Amino acid sequence: MLDRPRDKTRSDEVSLSALQFLFAEMVSYCQERVSGIADFERLLGSMGRHVGIRLLILITHRTQTASNPKRPQRETRLLKTLLWLHTAFWKSAFGFQADSLERSTESGRSDEYMISTNKPLFASGISVPKDMSQLSIEAFTAGIVEGALEGLGFKSP
Q1: Do residues 2 and 9 make contact, with C-beta atoms less than 8 angstroms apart?
Q2: What three-state secondary structure class fits 102?
Q3: Above 80 in pLDDT, residue 11?
Q4: For residue 9, how many other CB atoms are within 10 A of its CB?
């Protein structure tokens, strides 16, 4: 793996069972180290954030070298960045485009956006215990998006 050029592995995929096994171990690791659901989701999100930062570096490198290696561009407006995350980033990271990008309709939350997908990314291989029924395993996915946004210069409050 280390002998191959970084850009030549673009079409290589990891098997779903290997990814689910790795994620199940991450969930087990988190479960042993936290006491509440909020801490559990925070730790999963933190792990996802680190993955998101690294994915962003890889995806932007591949995009820039393929499209215009001499003049790389980075979007600085939030909506265009979210559209890029919703389409190109999501497809590169997860193999498919997210289903929708929605703006919050609640009063006082007009600056909140939601990227939705009907196909759960990581929750499909994990069974949540009954005492943790409120746990959202997809906090890891949210962390990936948070890390990508942070890497693009958009800090969360």
Answers
A1: no
A2: strand
A3: no
A4: 12
Q: Measure the CA–CA gap between 115 and 67, rounded to whole angstroms.
A: 26
Q: CB of 115 within 8 A of CB of 86?
A: yes
Top pLDDT among 70 and 51 is at 51
Residue 93 has pLDDT above 60, yes or no: yes
**Tokens encoding 136:** 């959202």
Main-chain dihedrals φ then ψ at residue 103, nearest 5 degrees: -95, 140
CA distance linking residue 97 with residue 86, whole number of Å: 7
Q: Give the tokens for residue 154.
A: 């958009």
**CATH 3.30.1060.10 fits domain 16-127+136-151:** no
107, with CB counted inside 10 A (0-12, 13-18, 19+), is exposed
- Of 19-23, 66-70, 137-141, which one has max mean pLDDT? 137-141
Say if pTM beats, i.e. exceeds, 0.90. no
Cα 68 from Cα 83, distance rounded (Å): 20
The pLDDT value recorded for residue 1 is: 45
Q: Where are the domains of the chain?
A: 16-127+136-151
Q: What is the mean pLDDT of residues 31-40?
A: 90
